[in-house]
Structures are given as structure tokens and as C-alpha cells.
Design a protein that fits this description.
heterodimer; A: mainly alpha; 2 strands; B: 5-stranded mixed sheet; 4-stranded mixed sheet; 19 helices; 45% helix; MetI-like (chain A); transmembrane helix (chain A); membrane (chain A)
């Protein structure tokens, strides 16, 4: 038996790998099939989009090379600036607020040992399952002048006939609220999974030290789920920044330009204005923005983990 | 959790190198940059039977019940008349066809007949790229200029470089007509002690009377932006002469949004918005919800298009009526136009057969067939009008406007971006976010940037 521990590494050292296996290219060979598919359907369109953004092109007929002009135009383009600002407001509704509320909900659920937790989870997760188009149509009814929301306010005693999606000040928060409704369930689920993984001993130790529920939350729960928070934020921030269907279906960017978002601008420029170059430039800027913000968020999550 | 590290590395390494490699190849079809005038056929033949077996490829968007039935019947009749021709029809929704035509016309495998929207953003762009056949020769051979009124044909005429819209070569033929006017409920008017208005003055007075009586004067569902164009268009004719509106609406040089007439029209529209003539929130109301509410008794008048009549009549019956009013120059002018015209692509394989088909589906018999199926034909509208009801109002109004007045173009015809500019602007005037003057300046910027270029 004494030979066994030393023999394993010896054997490994003795058997010389074949030239193919030894080649540094071999692992990439295994990746190749997936990479080809990925490149054809993801990278190539991405590169094409970047390419289009350097041209003035209607989507048909001849194209004129304009270099960085489409990007320079965006610098002074107020419609584009407004769209970016709206997207950042939506980040609050899609990502920040759901994470805050999701944290509270998840820690209550964890502590409370709610009966029928599975059913509750499924219900909260439901918005994720419904197609966004259906969600948008449903909320259009809720926000209508004679819709559910106004009826609810009426039942509470204050007559209301606000057209929520048609009011310049209310439309963006109204769309944001739909995003909040969509995101909260997902975020809560991710955080709850993280919290259920925390060893019970930690909570017991905290309780023995006389920590209150709030202190326990900040001392034990919050630090333990930093990774999950980062994941939730990355997912929901991406969802917020690339929102298209919800805006297209509920307000089409209106009233006026009160709810335009970058993705809607991409569509509008490409298909309505037939200005493919500018649309592609917006798409590229949006992609870079999504990457930067999320790289920053995951970097923060990562540092806190250490 | 370095979720994005590898992705960034890939983007940085592979993709950027790819971008640099690909910047050399321009998008689009550079071969179509030849002179647009090459799209007019040299010889016109109307003898279809002599052409041997032909497969005619037709792309259309007539998917709704009545229109679809009419076109199916016409296709069958065409094949009976010319047994050597087989029609291969592809039918899809308006928006889908629109996206597909843009791609298809740039390619080599084009249909023989395709429906192309009149607007500068669509037909105008294709004309300037030399992608549509000039039908002038066929129009002479088949006598189309006698069959169609000038007001209708002007909606399918562009100069060969597409700088002028409304005049010049012919690039398509429409089958149906449509018109925007004002619907009203007879019983509502009666209850308010009002007669049906016959002029803009009477209409404006009727609105005030309704307001004072606590009724909502007009119904508008403008959540999707474009419906307000159908309210402003007719209103504009009370303040601006038709020729100026046509120039503005077709994106031709020679007019301006910043004159007294347009200012008065936009201020009237602003007043309607701020004083609640459209109810509490027209911008927050769905288009379909608005006319549905009207059929159930909300509001006195509904400015809207003829296409709403069939569905509303089903609920309101004889109570529903439709009017158009005389414009500033005394003639009946109102926003309206044609159904989406049928065009022949420049690269079509069988242009002669396609032209014969165009002639066939716009013949007098075809018009009757469309009317029989519940549509509004673009020609012979007065003769084919139903005996009574709201459809009679509409057919008569369309005939009057297209034959003796002016069909004003939809405002979004004007420039490739005007549908956006106008939709946004009218929403903002209604909601009080911007003043009438500010919105007119935005309209003028769009118009003059296009006309000037």
C-alpha cells in the first residue's frame, strides 16, 4: 500500500502525451463547433452592425462611407441623449428598486418559514413566464383612462380619469412600474436561493450575541448574498437597458418623446427613418454601455466577495 | 464573479479585428446606383395571350376578409380570361410586407406585382433608387388617366428622381379609396338640439354647445401617436388653402408651416387639447378603445377614417353618420387617399402581364366586385354607393372630394421622418408639453431640411 500514493503522479509523468493532445490548440479544437455557430449567429451580426454604423445607408441601394460621422452626430443628438436618460431611469425601476424590495421580501420569507413557499415562489415568478407582449397589452388596460388602476383609485374614494401612459410626467414611471413588477420576482428568487444556502449556525451565533433581526440582516444575510446581488443586478440592468418590446407595445416612445429608449431608437431609425447607419451606431453605443455598466457591477460584486 | 471578463476579451480580440477587416466592404447593393431613368420599359405590349405560359408573382397585403375575397375572385377571373397565365400569390400583413419589400426590391428575385405604400419613405425611396417601373406607357395604352381622377393619380406620381411627389411619372395603381372625416351620433346631436354641421363654423359651434352641455365634444385615442394626424389634417383645411397643404404634405418645395394659417390651425388644436375637448387624456387612450367607447355613447363627434365605419355601424346602425366639410377655398377637401397601390418592380420578369393585371384589378367590373364585398372602390364610388346608411355618406363624400375637391395627402407622406415628427409633435401639443409654435417649428425644420436637400 505504501507505493500507491507515489505511483499515481509517477505514472502520469511517465506516459508521454501524443503530439495532438500536447498541442495547445487541442482545447480550442473541441470548442470549434460551438464557436462556429456562435460566430455565425452572434459575432458576425455584431461585427456587421459595427460595420453599418460607419456608413450612411437606407437599408437598400448604395451606401456611403462616412467614418465616425454617425457617432459624432450622436454627441449632439438630443433625442439620443433623452433615450439614454430614460434607460437610466428604467435601471432604477428594473434593477435597483427590485433588488431593494427583493432583499426585504427574501429575508422575510427565509425567516418566516412561510407555509406553501413553493406556491408563493411560483406566483411571484409568474411575470417571467408570460410573453412581454401579453404583459404590455394587459398593462395598457390597467393604465387606461377607464382602466383597472383608475377604478381602484375610484374605489378608494378619489375620482380619477388619468391616462397614465399619455401623461408626459407619468408615462416613464408607469412603464418603469411594469418593469419593477417583472423584475422583483426574479430578483427575490435569486436572493432567496442565496439566503437559504447560508449555514444556520451563523444566524444562531448572531442570535446568541443578541443581534436583532435588522442587525442580523446587515451582519449575516447581506454580506453572504453579495454574489447573488451582483448576479441579480447584472441580469436586471441588462433587461432595463435593452427594453424594447414593453415600450414599443405600451407607448411607442410617447407621449412625444417621453418614453423613448435606445433600443426603440435603433428600431425607429432603421425601419421608420431608413437611416441604418445611425441605428447601428446607437446599437453599438448601447452594447458598449451595457458591457461597461455590467463589467463595473460584477467587478464590485467580485471585490466585495474577497 | 467575473461574468464579463471573457466576453470583453473576445470582443476586444476577435470582433474588433473583424470590424477592421470588414470595413472595406460596404453594405447594400452598389450595382443599383445606375441612372433611375432606366426603369421605363421600351416597348409596351397589351397582347397577353400571345406571350406563352407565364407565372405572375403577386405580393399583396389584402389579408382582411372583404379585401381578400375581392382579390381572390379577381385573380380567378384573370386566370379565366388569360389561361396561359398562372398567378402565384403571397399575402401578408401590411407591416410584414413593408419590411420585406425593402429587402426584396434591392435583390434580383423580385415579384411581378407588389403593393408599395405611397409615402416618400417607401415609394419615394424606391423610385429614387430606380427600383420601380414607370407605368406612363401602360397608362396611355390602357387609358388609365381617363379611368382614375387626377386627385387619386397624383398620390402615385413621382418625378423620376423622386424630388417631386404628386406630379410626373406613374408608379402604381390603387384599388380602393379611403377618406378621413367626422363621424357623429344622430341621437346625440338631437338630444343637444343640434343639426348636423355643414361648415367648419357650425362644427366649431356644435363642439362648444356639447361642451357646455357637459358632453365630451370629440373622441380621440392617440396613444399610438398617429391618430391625431387624422384630426389635424381635416382641421388644417379650414385655415390653409389646399394647394399649400398638398405641397407640405407631399414634401414638395413652395410652402411653409410657419404661416398664419397653420399657426391658427395648430392653436385651435392646442385649445381643444388644453380645454378637454377630447376628454381627460386622449394621449393615454387606445385607438380601438376610443371608437369602441364612441359606439357605446361616449362623446358626440369622432374624427376618423372611413375604415372604422363597418365595425361601428355594426353597433350603432342608422344612428351613425359621416360628414366632410368644405375647406378654406369653398371646395370639399379632406385628408384621404388610396389603399396601398400595386406597383411593378423595375426588375419584374413579366412587366407586360403585370400591367394587364393592374388594368384588370382596377377595371369597372373589379370596382363593382370590391363594393359587393364591402370595400370602398377608388373609382365609380358614387354609382356603387350602398342605398343608405353611413356607407352611403362615405362613398358619396369620397366621390365628391376625389372628383370635385382635393384629397389632401396624409401628413406622414411628406418626408421619410415626418410620421415621427408629426406624431410626436401633435401628442406634445395635446398634452401641453410644447406650444403650438414650438411644434410648428419642429415641423418646419423637418420639412425644410428635406425640401432643401
Amino acid at each position: 500500500m505504501t507505493t500507491l500514493p507515489s505511483s499515481a503522479p509517477e505514472r502520469r509523468a511517465r506516459r508521454r502525451p501524443s503530439a495532438v493532445a500536447a498541442s495547445r490548440a487541442t482545447p480550442y479544437l473541441y470548442l470549434l463547433p460551438a464557436l462556429v455557430v456562435y460566430a455565425a449567429f452572434m459575432l458576425y451580426p455584431l461585427v456587421q452592425t459595427a460595420n453599418y454604423s460607419l456608413y450612411e445607408w437606407k437599408g437598400f441601394g448604395p451606401a456611403t462611407f462616412v467614418g465616425a460621422q454617425n457617432y459624432l452626430d450622436l454627441l449632439a443628438d438630443r433625442a439620443f441623449h433623452a433615450a439614454i436618460w430614460h434607460a437610466l431611469v428604467l435601471v432604477f425601476f428594473y434593477a435597483i428598486a427590485p433588488t431593494a424590495v427583493g432583499l426585504v421580501l427574501a429575508s422575510v420569507l427565509r425567516r418566516g418559514r412561510v407555509r406553501g413557499l413553493g406556491i408563493f415562489r411560483a406566483l411571484i415568478f409568474l411575470p417571467q413566464v408570460i410573453a412581454l407582449v401579453v404583459v404590455a397589452v394587459a398593462w395598457r388596460h390597467i393604465y387606461a383612462t377607464d382602466g383597472t388602476l383608475n377604478a381602484l383609485l375610484g374605489a378608494l374614494g378619489s375620482h380619477s380619469d388619468i391616462g397614465w401612459l399619455g401623461d408626459a410626467d407619468l408615462a416613464l414611471p408607469a412603464v418603469g412600474l411594469i418593469g419593477f413588477w417583472l423584475s422583483t420576482g426574479l430578483v427575490m428568487l435569486i436572493l432567496l436561493a442565496g439566503m437559504l444556502r447560508i449555514p444556520r449556525e451563523l444566524f444562531e451565533a448572531a442570535r446568541l450575541d443578541g443581534a436583532s433581526a435588522v442587525q442580523e440582516f446587515f451582519a449575516v444575510t447581506l454580506p453572504s448574498v453579495r454574489g447573488e446581488i451582483a448576479t441579480a443586478l447584472v441580469l436586471t440592468i441588462i433587461a432595463a437597458l435593452k427594453t424594447f418590446d414593453l415600450v414599443y407595445m405600451t407607448t411607442a416612445g410617447g407621449p412625444g418623446t417621453a418614453t423613448t429608449v435606445p433600443s426603440y431608437e435603433v428600431f425607429n431609425r432603421a425601419f421608420n427613418h431608413k437611416n441604418v447607419g445611425s441605428a447601428a451606431a446607437v446599437a453599438v453605443v448601447l452594447t458598449v454601455l451595457v458591457f461597461l455598466i455590467n463589467a463595473a457591477v460584477s467587478r464590485i460584486g467580485e471585490e466585495k466577495d474577497r | 464573479m467575473p461574468l464579463f471578463r471573457p466576453a470583453l476579451r473576445v470582443l476586444g480580440g476577435g470582433a474588433l479585428a473583424g470590424v477592421l477587416a470588414l470595413t472595406a466592404c460596404a453594405p447594400g447593393d452598389n450595382s443599383t446606383s445606375s441612372a433611375p431613368t432606366a426603369s421605363s420599359p421600351s416597348a409596351v405590349s397589351t397582347d397577353i395571350s400571345a406571350l406563352g405560359d407565364v407565372e405572375l408573382v403577386v405580393w399583396d397585403q389584402e389579408v382582411r376578409g372583404s379585401q381578400n375575397e375581392a382579390l381572390e375572385a379577381l385573380n380567378a377571373a384573370f386566370e379565366d380570361t388569360y389561361p396561359n397565365v398562372t398567378i402565384k400569390r403571397t399575402s401578408q400583413a401590411t407591416d410584414d410586407l413593408k419590411q420585406q419589400v425593402t429587402l426584396a426590391l434591392g435583390g434580383t428575385d423580385v415579384p411581378d406585382i407588389v403593393q408599395v405604400n405611397n409615402a416618400r419613405g417607401d415609394m419615394g425611396q424606391f423610385v429614387s433608387a430606380g427600383q420601380l417601373t414607370d407605368l406612363t406607357g401602360y397608362a396611355e395604352a390602357y387609358g388609365w388617366t381617363d379611368r382614375f381622377t387626377d386627385s387619386v393619380l397624383s398620390k402615385v406620381r413621382y418625378s423620376s428622381d423622386a424630388t417631386t411627389f404628386g406630379d410626373g411619372n406613374l408608379y402604381g395603381l390603387p384599388q380602393t379609396g379611403e377618406i378621413v372625416g367626422i363621424f357623429y351620433s344622430q341621437s346625440k346631436l338631437h338630444a343637444l338640439g343640434l343639426e348636423a354641421p355643414t361648415s367648419w363654423d357650425e362644427y366649431l359651434t356644435a363642439l362648444d354647445t356639447a361642451m357646455e352641455a357637459g358632453e365630451q365634444p370629440m373622441v380621440l385615442g392617440n396613444l399610438d401617436k398617429w391618430p391625431a394626424l387624422h384630426v389635424f389634417g381635416p382641421l388644417q383645411s379650414n385655415f390653409v388653402v389646399a394647394d399649400d397643404i398638398v405641397a407640405l404634405g407631399m414634401g414638395n418645395a413652395g410652402s411653409t408651416w410657419l404661416d398664419d394659417g397653420n399657426t391658427a390651425a395648430m392653436e385651435q388644436f392646442e385649445t381643444w387639447g388644453s380645454e378637454g375637448y377630447f376628454g381627460s387624456s386622449p394621449n393615454g387612450t387606445d385607438y380601438d378603445a376610443a371608437w369602441t367607447a364612441f359606439t357605446k355613447g361616449t362623446g358626440v363627434f369622432l374624427p376618423g377614417g372611413s375604415w372604422l365605419a363597418t365595425d361601428m355601424e355594426a353597433v350603432m346602425g342608422d344612428d351613425l353618420h359621416f360628414i366632410t366639410l368644405a375647406g378654406l377655398d369653398g371646395q370639399v377637401v379632406t385628408t384621404g387617399g388610396t389603399g396601398i397601390p400595386f406597383s411593378i418592380p423595375a426588375k419584374a420578369e413579366n412587366p407586360d402581364v403585370a400591367a394587364a393585371y393592374l388594368d384588370f384589378i382596377t377595371s369597372d367590373e373589379a370596382m363593382k366586385m370590391i363594393a359587393d364585398n364591402g370595400g370602398m372602390p377608388v373609382n365609380d364610388t358614387a354609382e356603387l354607393a350602398p342605398a343608405d346608411g353611413v356607407q352611403n355618406d362615405i362613398f358619396t363624400a369620397f366621390a365628391t372630394v376625389s372628383e370635385t375637391g382635393t384629397l389632401l395627402p396624409y401628413l406622414d407622406y411628406a418626408t421619410p421622418t415626418f410620421s415621427d415628427t408629426a406624431g410626436q409633435g401633435l401628442q406634445e401639443v395635446l398634452g401641453g408639453q410644447r406650444s403650438a409654435q414650438q411644434v410648428l417649428e419642429a415641423f418646419e425644420d423637418d420639412y425644410s431640411a428635406f425640401v432643401g436637400s
